[in-house]
Amino acid sequence: MTRLLFFIFFVFSHTSLYAQTSLPRFASLHSSEINLRTGPGERFPIEWVYHRVSLPVEIIDEFEHWRKIRDVDNTTGWVHKKMLSGKRTALTLKGRQHTLYKKESISSKPIAYINGQIIVSLEECSPESDFCKVSFQKIRGYLMKKDLWGIYKQEAIN
Fold it and tell me: Among 29, 37, 25, 49, which residue's Cα sits nearest to residue 119?
């Protein structure tokens, strides 16, 4: 019995460790003021300051407590891991209007039209679907994945 419990603990602890360290992966900014540095440490100069809490970013590298991130504009740099959140968000792509549907289909009733880059919370995405269930402000509905930055095409979010 003890061996079985040890095995279960070992498998689950290593599985969750792997899931958190796989690269690349998306996260979001935890604070409304985050310094983007040229390297992994406070001795490196600040290149940019983010002022948009919940902005989705892609983690592309790791060094100790530092994460190299990329944003929607392809800007890259290093932030401390405590400045990132596991809360999944996405950004609507700029330059076109996006339709928020009531159901997971383009033949469904539109419930809102979104212009510009809006941060939405990702609630549910299936690798088999072209849609993600999202929310912003007090509105919930479905957006097409192709209209979002912050989710991989084959990624699942529950």
Answer: 29
For domain 22-87, give its CATH number from 3.40.50.300, 2.40.30.10, 3.20.20.80, 2.30.30.40. 2.30.30.40
Q: Which residue has the tokens 């990329």?
A: 70
Which pLDDT does position 20 carry in this prediction?
54
pTM across the whole model: 0.85
Task: Provide CATH 2.30.30.40 ranges for the chain.
Answer: 22-87, 90-149
N- to C-terminal Cα distance for the chain? 33
Classify the phi-psi angles of 123: left when phi > 0, otherwise alpha if psi is within -120 to 50, otherwise beta: alpha
Q: How far is CA 129 from CA 7, 68, 90, 112, 142, in A?
A: 35, 30, 16, 20, 11
Cis previous bond, 24, omega within 30: yes
- Provide the CB-side half-sphere exposure for 12 (13 A, CA): 6
